[in-house]
Design brief:
Elements (H helix, E strand, L loop, with lengths): L9 H12 L34
Length: about 55
């Protein structure tokens, strides 16, 4: 998980961020919110690593 995106890999998170920034249909429309679409923060410059299950 990163920001509001859940994925299995760094590449999937990066694609989700790109899709969000492009207002892709992937996330649907937000209705009833009076403000602008919230921008996703910049991604870190290093690859994201999955969390490990502690069990």
């Amino acid at each position: 998980m990163w920001w509001n995106f859940i994925a299995r890999t760094d590449a999937e998170i990066r694609q989700a961020r790109e899709d969000w920034a492009a207002a892709s249909d992937r996330f649907g429309a937000v209705t009833g919110y009076p403000g602008d679409r919230l921008p996703a923060p910049e991604l870190p410059t290093v690859p994201l690593k999955p969390r490990r299950n502690p069990n």
